[in-house]
Amino acid sequence: MLSSRVHKISAGVACLVAAFAGATVSTAAGADSTADVPSYQEFAASTYVDVDGAYVVNGDEALSTKGDLKKFYERLVGPESTPTDGLIVNTVNGADDKWSATQAANLTYCVSTRFGTRHADVVAAMNAGAGLWEAATSKINFVHVPAQDGKCTTRNNSVVFSVEPVATSQYIARAFFPSSPKRQRNVLIDDSIWTSGTWEPGDILGHELGHALGFRHEHTRPESGTCFEDNNWRPLTPYDSSSIMHYPQCNGGSADLEFQSSDAAGARTLYGS
Ligand SMILES: [Zn+2]
To answer: Ligand 1: distance of its center to the CA of 207 in Å?
Structure first.
């Protein structure tokens, strides 16, 4: 059950990444052939559109508009310089994608009551995932606001983000970045989170909250040798194949998606200790 589940996750990720991975790797390497580069139309047509209309890229990251998707595509196929230097932070136009110190200390969220009988389990898993980053530095503080759970959507301006259920076979959970507009700031969780084998729900949500803090997939770094996404990031620590932000199925070193000391160090580098 575990292996089939992991294989399913892997296949889903590969499906979203492989469509253009070859193209970007050859572009980065300066290869002369662009025959494998999909057109924007082909790329857009192959991109999964989520229940809320967002485009899901890199497995579990959401983009709100067609304009964002076009920019993402252009960065992907454009000229790139590979950083040589784990945890890495997303960059937008070269600047770190992070919360202000004030906001990082008060990242409020609601957990939708639409989780029904699983609501308490989601609350506990969110606490576990948030706790990983909060233990790394006192500068990061996630705050559950139960009073908002009954109206927990991206339209609720009383919280920074919402945690909502979704039914999809495309991913287990999905998140956003600090630069994401409010209408896209949610963590969506599929029921498969409860049957993900050695990936504990708290660790899966720890990974998603890593994105919410601005951290990118560790496996996009050249050292992984696979699962390349793009170069719009800045290294915070040396490469760590066991990072919680590294998919195990991308030559990862931690099969159970555990939080590492390198993740804590990276969080302190970005937000202070
Ligand atoms: Zn991810």
So the answer is: 6
124-167 pLDDT, tens per residue? 999 999 999 999 999 999 999 999 999 999 999 999 999 999 99
Ligand 1 centre to CA of 250 (Å) is 12
d(CA 164, ligand 1 centre) in Å = 17
In angstroms, what is the span from residue 33 Cα to ligand 1's centroid? Answer: 30
Q: What is the DSSP letter of 54?
A: P
**Mean predicted lDDT score pLDDT of the chain:** 85
Contact 263, 216 (CB under 8 A): no
d(CA 99, CA 213): 7
168 in Cβ contact with 190 (< 8 Å): yes
Distance 150 CA to ligand 1 centre (A): 27
- Report pTM: 0.77
CA of 155 to the centre of ligand 1 (A): 23
C-beta of residue 25 within 8 angstroms of C-beta of residue 228 = yes
- Alpha carbons 231 and 222: distance in angstroms, whole number: 10
Query: Are the C-beta atoms of residues 184 and 212 closer than 8 Å to each other?
Result: no
